Amino acid sequence: MFSFFRKKSPPPAMVPAPVPPAETPATPAAPATPVPAPAPAPATASVSTPPTAAAPSPTPSPAARQGWLDRLKAGLRKTGSSIATVFTGTQIDDALYEELETALLMADTGVKATEQLLADLKRRVKEAKATDPIQVKGLLADAIADLLAPLQKPLEIGAQQPTVIMVAGVNGAGKTTSIGKLTKHLADSGESVLLAAADTFRAAAREQLAVWADRNTVEIVSQQGGDPAAVSFDAVSAGRARGKNVVLVDTAGRLPTQLHLMEELKKIKRTIQKAGLADASVAAGPPQGDTAPSGGSEPHAVGGVGARLPPHEVLLVIDGNTGQNALAQVKAFDEALQLTGLIVTKLDGTAKGGVLCAIAREKPIPVYFIGVGEKLEDLETFDAREFAQALLS
Ligand SMILES: Nc1nc2c(ncn2[C@@H]2O[C@H](COP(=O)(O)OP(=O)(O)O)[C@@H](O)[C@H]2O)c(=O)[nH]1
Ligand SMILES: [Mg+2]
User: Fold this and answer.
1) Quick one: which of 43, 144, 315, 362 could link to 388 by a disulfide (CB 3.0–4.6 Å)?
2) What string of DSSP letters covers 77-115?
3) What ligand 1 atom has the least distance to the C-alpha of 372?
4) What DSSP character marks residue 292?
5) What per-residue confidence (pLDDT) applies to 31?
C-alpha cells in the first residue's frame, strides 16, 4: 500500500526531552482566531493553540489513489505534445526514434536524460526483439520507470523528536499549500504538528498558513514582521518543549539569483541547527549574531547520541510548469541548502512532467510528494512506475 510517509522509532539512546513549561512562549487565551495579532510586536513568537486535536483517520483507499492517478494522467495529457502519439504507427524505424526524441525534449526531459532514455530504449527493443511500436511504448515505460526509481523514497518521520522539516522554493511554487496538505496527512495519521510561519515578509503569507493550521487544528508559531530565523528558532524550541512529532517551517519565496535572500535562507537553516543543539541556553531565545554553530567538539542534537541536528529534511517545492528551469532551481537551492527532498506541484495543469527525468539524470534528489491540485487531498506520494505510465498515457 501507499503510505504517505514512513514512521520510524527514535534511536534507543534518544530520550524525549523534558518539557520546560516556563520558557515556552505564552499561549493566547482565546484560540479561536488562528493568528493572534497583538498591537505591540511580541518579544518572542506567538503560538496559537487549536481548540481540539485532530483525530487519526485511515490512509487513502486504493480508489482514492486511482482517482488521483487519473487527474495526474489528465494533467500530463493536456500538453498536446503527448509522447504516446509517437507509437501510433506500424514501424519501428529511425523516424519513430526521431519523433520520440522531439516529444521527450518537448516534455521538458532535457538533452541528457533524452539521450540516455533513447539509448536504453534501443537496447531494450533489441533485447526483446520487439516488432510493434506498442511494445516499444511499454519498453519506454520500463526505461522511464528505471530512470525515475532513485527519486522514489518515502519521507521518514519519527526518528527524531520533533522531525524538523524546512521548506523552500521560489514564489508561488506551492510551498504553503503543500505544507497545508502535508499537515493534513500527518494530522490524520495522529502525528502532532507545529507550523512555523517563517515567511514573515507578507502578512498574507502568515494568514494563509494560519488558515491551513486552523483547518488541520494544529499549532502555529508566527511573528508579525519578525525575523524569519527567529521564528524558526522559536518554533523548533517550542516543538521540542511541547513534544511535537513534526515541525514544518514555511519560508518566503525567493529566486536563486537573489543572493541576499539565499543567504537569509542559509541563516534560517543555521538557526534551526542552533535551536537543536544540546545546550542549556537553547531555551533562552534566539542568538543575536549570525554565526554557524561553533566549538571544538562535534555538536549534537538534544536527545543524545543518535539524534541528528535539525533541520532533518530540507525540501524544495518546484512548480511542475517551470520546465527546465526547475532543474536549475534544484541545483541552486541544493548548493545553498543541501536539499534532502523535493515536492513537485501543479502536475494537474499544463506541466509536461518530463522534468522529473531531467532531475533523475542530473540531480537525483528524492521526490517525496507530487501535487495534482489545490485541494487538501491533492498531494500524493511519488511512484516511479505510475508516473512513467501517466507520462505515456
Ligand atoms: N493546480 C494546482 N495549484 C496549486 C498546486 N499547489 C499549489 N497550487 C496553487 O499555487 C498558488 C501558489 O501556492 P502557494 O502555496 O501560495 O505558493 P508559495 O508562494 O510557494 O507558498 C496557489 O494558488 C495554490 O492554490 C497544485 O498542485 N496544483
Ligand atoms: Mg507561501
Assistant:
1) 144
2) HTTS--GGGGGGSS--SHHHHHHHHHHHHHTT--HHHHH
3) 27
4) -
5) 35
Decide if 217 contacts 54 (C-beta within 8 A): yes
> 341 CA distance to ligand 2 centroid (A)?
18
The burial class, CB within 10 Å (0-12 / 13-18 / 19+), for 277 is: middle
d(CA 74, CA 1): 23
Opening angle at CA 356, ends 351 and 357, nearest 5: 120
Question: Where does ligand 1 bind, in terms of residues with CB under 6 Å?
Answer: 169, 171-177, 253, 317, 345-346, 348-349, 371-374, 378
Give the environment of ion ligand 2: residues with CB less than 5 A: 175-176, 205
Q: Which residues contact 379 (CB under 8 A, 6 or more apart)?
A: 178, 181, 182, 185, 343, 369, 370, 371, 372
Residue 61 DSSP code: P
Whole-model pTM: value is 0.83
Whole-number Å distance, alpha carbon 208 to ligand 2 midpoint, is 7
Output the nine-digit C-alpha cell for 389.
505510465
β 246-251/193-198 pair status:
parallel
Structural element, H or E, at residue 177: helix 175-188
Distance CA 300, CA 306 (A): 9
Q: CB-based contacts of 249: which residues, under 8 Å, 6+ apart?
A: 164, 165, 166, 167, 196, 198, 232, 235, 268, 272, 311
β-strand partners of 176: none
Give me ligand 2 centre to Cα 253, in Å: 7
Integer Rg of the chain from CA = 23
Are the C-beta atoms of 251 and 265 separated by less than 8 Å? yes
Upper half-sphere CA count for residue 169 (Cβ side, 13 Å): 28
Taking the CA of residue 173 as reference, the ligand 1 atom at the shortest distance is: 20
pLDDT of residue 224: 77
pLDDT below 50 — which residues of the chain?
A: 1-2, 14-58, 80, 278-302
For 327-343, write each residue's pLDDT tens digit. Answer: 999 999 999 999 999 99
